[in-house]
Amino acid sequence: MAVSQGNKKRLQTFYFIGGLLLTALLAFMGGMWGASAKVFDSAPAGAYGTAWDWAIAKELVKKGDEQKQMVTQAEFLKMVVEIGKVPTAEGPVPTEVEDHWASSIYATAKANGVIDCSCQIKPDGELTEREAAKFVMLALNGKWNKPIITLEAVEGWVAENGSGVNLQADQNQLTKEQAMELVYRMDRLLNELTPV
Q1: Which of 196, 76, 93 is nearest to 139 (CA)?
Q2: Residue closest to 196 by CA, chosen among 14, 35, 24, 9
Q3: Which of 21, 58, 138, 179 is 20 to 30 Å from 67 at the Cα level?
Q4: Contact at 8 Å (CB) between 34 and 179?
Q5: What is the mean pLDDT of the segment spanning 141-166?
Q6: Quick one: DSSP state of residue 146?
Q7: Bigger pLDDT: 171 vs 68
Q8: Residue 36 — left, alpha, or beta (φ > 0 → left; ψ -120 to 50 → alpha)?
Q9: pLDDT of residue 58 exceeding 70
Q10: Which residues of 45-82 are buried (b: 16+ CB within 10 A; e: fewer)?
């Protein structure tokens, strides 16, 4: 059966318009699928190169900061509360920080269980890897009111990075570099576990 010239043109026009409509539909669906993908408030893992680069982008440290400098308990606790999105809470302020710049951070941390009864309050003092790991563990586990990570696993984050000696985590003083590794990994885990 022969197709007339007029019908051939109509068929070509039909295929052309159908192709355009199909392309538009696929583009629309691709946009919808992309929009429904999990969106993080920080870039995906590896996008920054290192935890230090991520910390600079988050303005936790400045580009010229010394990575091997020790971090204070108050500085680290502030990072854990902010990055962990620990809800602000009023409550009793430990007497050691009543007149300290971080008093509200300590009150929030205490009210949300990030500081437990065994914590030695020393806002301007250095802290060990174990003390820092415990803050991170308590903040993460408190977020879901169940154990999602162990102290040993959080301590391992520092050791895996090669910047700490995990065998003596209860004695090693935490450096800024190690602190950034801990809060970076905390942020990554929060992003993985938090539903859209």
Answers
A1: 76
A2: 35
A3: 138
A4: no
A5: 79
A6: S
A7: 68
A8: alpha
A9: yes
A10: eeebeebbebbbebebbeeeeeeeeebbbbbbbbbbbe
Say which amino acid occupies 145.
Answer: N
Separation between Cα atoms, residue 20 and residue 14, nearest integer Å: 10
Locate 155 and state its tokens. Answer: 């301590």
Confidence of residue 165 (pLDDT cuts 50, 70, 90): very low
* Total residues found in the chain within this entry: 196
Instruction: List, in order, residues 6 or more apart from 100 with CB less than 8 Å away.
Output: 74, 106, 123, 124
Helix (H) or strand (E) holding 187: helix 176-193
Per-chain mean pLDDT for the chain: 80
CB-count exposure of residue 44 (10 Å: 0-12, 13-18, 19+):
exposed
Residue written as tokens 């052309």?
A: 16
φ/ψ of 103, rounded to 5, equals: -60, -40
